[in-house]
Prior knowledge:
Elements: E1 13-16, E2 29-36, E3 39-44, H1 53-56, E4 66-69, E5 73-82, E6 91-94, E7 97-99, H2 103-111, E8 120-129, H3 133-139, E9 143-146, H4 150-153, H5 161-167, H6 171-177
Parallel strand pairs: 4-8
Antiparallel strand pairs: 1-2, 1-9, 2-3, 3-8, 5-7, 5-8, 6-7
Helix pairs in contact: 5-6
Amino acid sequence: MLTSSYKPEPGRFLVSEPFMHDYNFKRTVVLLVEHNDQGSLGFVMNRQLNVAIDEVVKGMPAIGSAVFMGGPVEQETLQYVHRIANLPKAKEVYNGVFWGGDFMQLRQMMTMGEVSPADVLFFVGYSGWGPNQLEKELDQKSWIVAPQAPEFIFQDDYSDMWRQVLQTMGTKYKIISNYPVDPRLN
């Protein structure tokens, strides 16, 4: 399978190889928000749930922000990625994209209409790798590292994101973006 010349770092995407068998990551795009010697952490961007944030968190305003299955780790937790530069305790992932921050302040800002629902993505659980685990998976060609592209983070439809990200990476990636999910059915 293909690899890319990009190295994992916050703000980059991990695109699963076309025939990955792990259901948690089959045809997924993971936004890395942390990558260091202690490991890596990210969120699956293209597994949107059919649930509203106010159904997940009691007391949240019914505003329509997207909720995703962020990954198989700690699925009882809620994480968020956003474009709110002035949210206290938020960590800038890269260039205007932030992770986390003061949740009570975020809820208040959303309730007051100071934040657009399109500026916040919520994730149930996350995708995590221990020290050197992601590097081993990259060596096994389980993932393709894609460049930072904020236009893919905050969009209206995430259902075809796996294919769309690959198609922006050049001809050889465009070819694999069209691989069938099950080649036996081709």
